[in-house]
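Notes to self after the call with IL:
- keep both proteins in one doc
- input above output, always
- annotate only the second one for now

Protein 1:
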Amino acid sequence: MNGDTFDVTPWEKTDLFLALIEGNCQQNPEIQIVAIVHGLVQSLLPNRLKAPSEVKQVDLGEGRKVTHYVETLRRIQKALKDQGHYSGGIDGDYGPGTRAAMAAFQTKAGLDPTGLPDQLTLLRLLHPSGPGGG
């Protein structure tokens, strides 16, 4: 692994990572799991965090909160801005503007427009071609 890596999966949770591995194994049963995991990690490297980042809680309402690196929140805002959904500053705050932009992206992507940074939405937004492993 690269010496300039702080976190190779800055927002990808265990369940998503396992689902990606399982999907690749099912699609490529002839490939050993070690090769699939290696390929998946390699595909995630371009989006890794190279240095520590502050963490921030995002209030999802109804007493639910998720924690994300501020750098991840900035990347979310930048991706939303690049796609024309967000016009605010790239500040790492998940406020009403970011939430509305996320809902607009979700609608365009055929997802439930909750405005929340859930795993499927982040996968589509930050890995539009999908991370691969096999």
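Protein 2 (the one to annotate):
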Amino acid sequence: MPDKIENGTPKHLKARDDLVSAAKSLLDRAFKSHHSYYGLCSTSCQVYDTAWVAMVPKTTDNVKYWLFPECFHYLLKTQAADGSWGALPTTQTAGILDTASAVLALLSHVREPLQILDVSPDEIGPRIEHGLTSLKRQLAVWNDVEETNHIGVELIVPALLSTLEKELGESSFEFPCKGILEKMYEEKLGNFDLEKVYGKPSSLLHSLEAFLGQIDFDRLSHHLYRGSMMALPSSTAAYLIGATKWDDEAEDYLRYIMRNGAGHGDGGISGTFPITHFECSWILATLLQGGFTVKQIDSDGLRGLATILADALRNENGNLSHLYLTMLLVEAFTEVLYLIDGGELSSLFDENLKCKIGLSVFQAVLRIILS
């Protein structure tokens, strides 16, 4: 049966044209959203990062004020009826992090309202109580602490709970997996010398908020890259909170992502920013693997995103040649053969495996010559 005709065009062709148009629109919008300095990111707003940014104070002309009151108001808007700040069916840890950090932010604002006078402490008090009740309820059934993929959770949660107890003036948190969490905390810290965080980049920079009051934040400024600590708003906020010297670049970074991130200025803060190369790669790979041809979606957006990736590879000593991976394989196998001949690895490889390695190197080189 022939396709229906709409405005002189077969329906299946019109649908295909609509898809191509939508793909081009996506590419163009993504490219136009890219900032030459701050990059590109479309990740959703996270309560955890928003709470830490809400706790950043600044003093100007001897007047102290909350730098991002929008973030505080965002927390008020997003608290759920059960007192939590939402819960995900796939992870209990996220709900605990969100609720604990949001309650800490509210406590900070009750202790020092500063310039935010439109919200009464009488309104915030019940919110804190409901939040604490929810947090204790979540901790009581927390069972994915060892499986969670949240970076630094074994450092962050103990620090959050300890800070909350200090704010409340009481020991409030007992829960079934507390012993497991404490063991994870001790094992994690046992692998690190905190002095080393002042030198080369360390994974601890992903969780700076866990070390407020424990390290000298003034000695971390060299780790900033375009205003951020590891592209994490929470760590960047912690840096501003903990340092005695104000950093305008870090402030500008947080201000930019609040205005231009997924929250679009409503106070919500993305969980990470930027993820430029992931965004570009994901969009391009998804469209091309989905059946679009380069010719179909050729546009300023396509060329722009491709250029961003190509420039990044060049700037980071990458290689755009299709033979690059072959070169790496040959280099690695040649080094292995050298070590085998020297007797260092001979006991690990039998004759059959040695033959396969040599054959792989031969075939790789031969294919390059023949091509």
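Annotation: Residues 11-33 form the longest helix (23 residues). The longest strand covers residues 57-60.
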